UniProtKB/TrEMBL annotation:
Localization per Swiss-Prot or TrEMBL: Cell membrane
Database matches in PROSITE patterns: ABC_TM1
TM ranges: 25-52, 94-113, 125-142, 185-204, 225-249, 293-313
Any one GO BP annotation for this protein: transmembrane transport
Family: Belongs to the binding-protein-dependent transport system permease family.
CDD domains tied to this protein: TM_PBP2
Protein name (Swiss-Prot/TrEMBL): Putative ABC transporter permease protein YurN
One of the Pfam families matching this protein, by short name: BPD_transp_1
Gene Ontology CC entries for this record: plasma membrane
Organism from which the protein derives: Maritalea myrionectae
Alphabetically ordered keywords of this record: Cell membrane, Membrane, Transmembrane, Transmembrane helix, Transport
Topology versus the membrane: Multi-pass membrane protein
């Protein structure tokens, strides 16, 4: 009798089952667009790059299977190797510079905003506003600002008596990459600022006030309390900065061109991949095989380093009790 009673479902039980089924269908409906976009624009291109990298290509015509031949050409062929090494170290310079200037400035701004000065809401909007602007627009706008003849930067320098500093910023190998890094830092500094600010607000105010009552200076509070407890935010920013630095393409392409002008001083791995796969003045005809092999190597490097850095930085995080 007890078993018969358990096997009989009441209308309420049927309604609960239907509600759960509808909830699953609704969640699947909401997730489908995102999954379709990921499959179409992320996973399928990744699979295609791996597939293309193991074949020889003559323009758009696929040739015979050559295994790791394209990878050997990218890594060990002197004609390609010198461009790869130069672009790689340029990306390293970008990563280090953005970590120091962009994220260092973001930390200072976050500490400033955390004290809630007068008008701090306006400052938050002002710092974050460039982030939402198009990178293409920013690249073209700053290219005009840095024009050596009528650009805003050189005009201001001449007007304040610093005409000797008015140089062709994007035309000299010594200044081109630095100028682009500063433009990128201006564009993105608002994002790490808000991430750091959110991490600071997560720290209990009682902890900071207690340190002040014990006579700790603001520097000691920032070094011994705020910085260690901001570790999760630091992990996020470091990893995202690394990924962005080694995927850097828009600003160098718009402001320096596909060849990494001048004299390949602004050449990046993204630019090298593009002109290898689709052709350019220096690279000649397109080579899907070699370009795909380069893209796969870039992905492996970024994925490996990001995974190791994430695990290492996460292990050093301090959790709030």
């Amino acid at each position: 009798m007890a078993q018969l009673t358990k096997s009989i479902k009441t209308p309420f039980d049927n309604a609960v089952v239907r509600r759960r089924q509808m909830r699953k269908l609704w969640l699947a409906f909401l997730l489908f667009p995102a999954m379709a976009i990921l499959l179409t624009f992320v996973f399928l291109p990744m699979a295609s790059a791996i597939w293309y990298s193991v074949y020889e290509w003559d323009g758009l015509v696929r040739g015979e299977f050559i295994g790791l031949g394209n990878f050997q050409e990218v890594l060990f062929d002197p004609r390609n190797n010198k461009f790869l090494i130069n672009a790689f170290f340029n990306n390293v310079k970008v990563f280090i510079a953005l970590m120091v200037f962009q994220n260092g400035l973001a930390l200072i701004l976050a500490l400033f905003l955390a004290r809630e000065p007068k008008g701090y809401r306006f400052y938050q909007i002002a710092f974050f506003l460039p982030v939402i602007l198009s990178t293409v627009i920013i690249g073209f706008q700053w290219k005009l600002f840095l024009n050596p003849i009528f650009g805003l930067v050189n005009t201001l320098l001449r007007n304040v008596g610093l005409g000797d500093w008015a140089v062709p910023w994007l035309g000299l190998p010594e200044t081109a990459l630095g100028a682009m890094i500063l433009v990128n830092a201006w564009h993105w500094v608002g994002f790490p600022t808000l991430v750091f600010l959110a991490a600071i607000h997560r720290i209990p105010k009682d902890l900071i006030e207690a340190a002040r009552l014990d006579g700790a200076s603001e520097w000691m509070i920032a070094r011994d309390i705020i910085w260690p407890l901001m570790a999760p935010a630091v992990t996020i920013i470091v990893v995202l900065t690394f990924i962005g630095s080694f995927n850097w393409f828009e600003i160098p392409y718009i402001m320096g061109g596909l060849e990494g002008s001048p004299s390949y001083s602004t050449d990046m791995l993204g630019l090298l991949f593009y002109r290898t796969a689709f052709g350019s003045v220096s690279a000649g005809n397109s080579d899907f095989g070699t370009g795909s092999a380069l893209a796969v190597l870039i992905f492996i490097f970024i994925f490996t380093f990001s995974t190791i850095a994430t695990r290492y930085l996460t292990s050093r995080e301090v959790e709030l009790s």
